[in-house]
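Handout, section B. The chain below has 77 residues.
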Amino acid sequence: MVAGGANGAFATPLTPFRYEAQAQRHCPADTVVWLDFRKGVYYARRQKRYGQGSNGSFACLEEVRSNGYRRSLLGVR
């Protein structure tokens, strides 16, 4: 028997992509976000920092959330 963490949940493996289209092909039913590894946050398409910076990658929202990254509130209205 294989046990998960303290709550028994497993994180989905995070697959980062260089290009947005690659991420969308990987998870066609999910939302693609920009993940900033240095800050530990992700940005949605409508946010100013989406796709910017050299410390990030495109990734699928569900994978990002299951790996403990949090949503950036910068630029959210």
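Note. Confidence is low (pLDDT under 50) at residues 1-6. Compare this with the example in section A.
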